Amino acid sequence: MDRFHAALTEGKVEAALKLLSEDVLIYESGRAERSKAEYASHHLKADAEFAGATQRKLVKRASWVGTDTAWVTSETETAGTFKGRALSLTGTETMILRRAAGAWKIVHIHWSSATKR
Predict the structure, then answer these.
(1) Where residue 90 sits, what CATH number does that domain have?
(2) What is the C-alpha to C-alpha distance for residues 53 and 10, in angstroms, rounded to an integer?
(3) Domain of 7?
(4) 3-state secondary structure of 46
(5) 91 burial level (CB within 10 Å; 0-12, 13-18, 19+)
(6) Separation CA 84–CA 96 (nearest Å)
(7) pLDDT in tens, 23-74
(8) What is the per-residue burial (b if ≥16 Cβ within 10 Å, else e) of 11-40?
(9) How many Å apart are CA 35 and CA 67, to the nearest integer?
C-alpha cells in the first residue's frame, strides 16, 4: 500500500498497476471502478497527477493481517495546489489486500476526503 502511494506520487502508473488485483474494486467520490483495466483507463492518471502535486501526511493507521487477507485503514491530511486550486483536505482510506502465489495484491480501495476544518 505504501508502494502504491509512492508509485502514484512519482508518476509511475505502471508500477502502481502491478500492485492491484485484476478484479480490484475502487470506490472514490461516490463512484466505483470494478477492475484494474477500468481504473487504468479512467482515474489512475488523474490520481497520479494529484498525488504528485500535493503532499500527503499519514495521521493514523490501523491494520490486520491474516493468512491470505489483510486490511489497512488510514487517516491522512493532504495539502497543496492542484489545477490552480489551493487544497487542504482530510482523508480516509481503506485497503483490502489478498495474497495469491506469494504476492500481496490490492483487491479493494475506498477513498473519502473532505475540506479540512
Answers:
(1) 3.10.450.50
(2) 10
(3) 2-115
(4) helix
(5) middle
(6) 33
(7) 999 999 999 999 999 999 999 999 999 999 999 999 999 999 999 999 999 9
(8) eeeeebbebbbeebbbebeeeebeebeebb
(9) 24
Three-class secondary structure of residue 102 per DSSP: coil
Total tally of structural domains belonging to the chain: 1
User: What whole-number distance in Å separates Cα of residue 26 and Cα of residue 31?
Assistant: 8
Yes or no: say if 95 and 1 are a contact pair by the CB < 8 Å rule.
yes
pLDDT, one tens digit per residue, over 91-117 is 999 999 999 999 999 999 999 999 998
Instruction: Give every CB contact of residue 26 below 8 A, 6+ residues apart in sequence.
Output: 32, 33, 39, 43, 108, 109, 110, 111
Burial class (CB in 10 A: 0-12, 13-18, 19+), 71: middle
pTM of the model: 0.95
